[in-house]
Amino acid sequence: MSSILWRLLLGIAALGTLSSGPGPRAAPSLVGTLTCTAEPAPSEAKQLGGWKLSCAFEQAGTTGVQHYGGEITGLDQGTRTAGAKALLVWTVLAGTAPRNTANLVGVYKTTDDAALPAQSLIGGRDQTIILQPVADAEQNIAPSVRLMQLDLPRA
């Protein structure tokens, strides 16, 4: 009897090993929309191409708005903006389902991952948030961003 039990346990362990290996990734799910206004940073940071951000995140399925601050330190060299402010709009996707509210705090950067939409940024605390530029937003410079940091606003 113990031989049968031993074989059964080995079979279950082997099945668990096979099913826990790498498999197809789940498609990212829509989390909401992030809209930011960017202003050039003070002159000492401007040499790095720095922009200060003020953002509002509207999570899908809720009526609340979360506010974030941050900065952009990576813009395409050819990016031109009219006036002192710039608009950035992204569709927010998540590789894993967010808890009650999504938390967008973290560093975002471009990636060469062919599975992600072109010009997307990936980041957040656990690198599971994807920011995809909204193509039809007028004057949207989001596709030009290469490196961005989002933080909770300071009181």
| Class by SSE composition | mainly beta
Distance linking N and C termini: 68 Å
**Range of strand content:** 35-45%
Largest sheet: 8 strands, antiparallel, barrel
What low-confidence regions span 5 or more consecutive residues with pLDDT below 50?
1-24
Shape: globular
Helix content: 10-25%
Topology as a string of helices (H) and strands (E): HEHEEEEEEE
Number of domains: 1
How much is the radius of gyration in Å?
Answer: 21 Å
Strand order in space, largest sheet: 1-2-3-8-5-6-7-4
Tally of DSSP β-strands:
8
Mean pLDDT, to the nearest integer, reads: 75
Number of helices, where a helix is a run of at least 4 consecutive DSSP H or I residues: 2
List the helices and strands and how they pair.
Blueprint: H1 2-19, E1 29-40, H2 43-46, E2 51-59, E3 65-75, E4 86-94, E5 106-110, E6 121-123, E7 129-133, E8 145-151
Antiparallel strand pairs: 1-2, 1-4, 2-3, 3-8, 4-7, 5-6, 5-8, 6-7
Quick recap of the structure?
The chain is mainly beta and 155 residues long. It contains two helices and eight strands, in the order H-E-H-E-E-E-E-E-E-E. The N and C termini lie far apart (68 Å).
Describe, in plain words, how this protein is organized in 3D:
The chain has two helices and eight strands. The chain is mainly beta. It has one domain. Strands 1-2-3-8-5-6-7-4 form an eight-stranded antiparallel β-barrel. A hairpin with a 5-residue loop joins strand 6 and strand 7 (129-133). It is globular, with a radius of gyration of 21 Å. 24% of the residues are buried. Residues 1-24 have low confidence and may be disordered.
